[in-house]
Specification:
The protein is an all-alpha fold. The chain has two domains: 3-101, no CATH class; 108-154, no CATH class. The chain contains eight helices and no strands. It starts with a helix and ends in a 19-residue tail after the last helix.
Amino acid sequence: MNKLAWILAFWCALGAASVQAEEPAPAPGIEWDMLDEEQQQLLESQKENWESLPPGRQQAMAEGSGRWLSMTPDQRKVAQERFRKWRELPPEQRQRLRERWQRFRELPPEKKDALRDSFRRYQSLSEEQRARLRERWQQMTPEERQRAIQRRQQYPRPAAPRPAAPPARRPSG
């Protein structure tokens, strides 16, 4: 399978997880002819097996290909790099990340937002500031970490600015 197909499979796996977690009813299958020309080109390696794929997988692949096509070249490079790093992880670490992701998905919306805001604030720090913060965290005892988390929850900071959303994909045709 080529690199692009692997990336799409990864995106589809994430999409399939969201379809399964958010929609109790199974997603309907998608006929190959219902995909637009760009999606068909992107998913060409799946054409022969398309009809035998489970409907949820077809849905996830169609959504994943739509997301891929809506990305800028820079966003695609970032996605490829993330996927490369994902493939290099040991299976145990991938499993731990999947479990963390599932726990995150089960959080109430306000806790998800708080975590996202914390992550944005962390990302806005300089590399030097992040390194100092990581070092300080690693030097803390579990009890000190727990107290820091509790203080953070008790006295939340204002939300960090949200990054601009990627441009919407214009329909082809």
